[in-house]
Amino acid sequence: MASFQILPVIENRVVGPYTLLRVEDKKMHSIAKCGHFVMVGLPDSMDPFLLRPISFLSVDEKSFTILIKVKGKGTEKLSKVKEGESLKILGPLGKALEPPENGILIAGGIGIAPLYYQSEWMKSGVLFYGAKREKDLVFKEEIKDRGFIVNTISEEKRGTVVDLISENLNFLKGKKTFVCGPESMIKELKGIIGDYAKDTFVYIERRMGCGLGGCKSCAVKVYFEYKLVCQDGPIFPLHEVKFD
């Protein structure tokens, strides 16, 4: 079972609208797999009380990186952790994914983070990526360098990633497809993709109390039962997930 660690931050830098934190850890690379995430908090503070679930952006032999989007007081405090200060880390958590050698990635906003990590485990593929502004489209060149064709769209210029997929549905045919982004985007894509959804998988984001299955706060409806994102996910077949 994963245990808590207090680990030093060795880099804090702004990447587009996000904050990238690099955390020193020489053991994570030997246990972290595609699809895993960590719970992140401040070691000497009870405000916020709950840790935040955050996916890996990358993992190497000496460190791992995470991407922070400020959504409230908790993520704002995490984004301000300086080099030399520490984070409280629990993980890796979740169910590992065995990604295909080639496939389709669909990212909306900060949904690029776990898909960027997944692209490290693949040989090639196609990325469809949308954000509010052109300057919010981060890591495009890095993913191209990994052998991916990258198609982007922004709301300030042309539309959303849902529009981009609507124009390129044929790309999905016969390919394993992985989606991560806002729930509103995922709902729209589920309706558009239709029969292709049998081969489409989605990273589900939920607030979590513990990350270990005890609090049941991250339940998601899958067919006629509830599963826990922290233990059964975070990746589920899109056609199985029921959005209320």
The CATH topology name of the largest domain reads Rossmann fold
- The fraction of residues assigned to DSSP E strands is 25-35%
Number of domains: 2
Q: What is the CATH top level name of the largest domain? A: Alpha Beta
Q: In angstroms, what is the radius of gyration?
A: 17 Å
Give average pLDDT, whole number: 93
Count of β-strands: 15
**How far apart are the first and last residues' alpha carbons, in Å?**
32 Å
Brief overview, please?
The chain has 244 residues and is α/β, with parallel strands linked by helices. It folds into two domains: 4-93, Beta Barrel (Elongation Factor Tu (Ef-tu), domain 3); 102-240, Nucleotide-binding domain of ferredoxin-NADP reductase (FNR) module (Rossmann fold), CATH 3.40.50.80. It has helices at residues 28-31, 73-79, 112-119, 140-144, 161-167, 183-193, 229-232, and strands at residues 4-15, 18-24, 37-41, 52-55, 58-59, 63-68, 86-93, 102-108, 124-131, 148-154, 177-180, 200-203, 219-222, 225-228, 235-237.
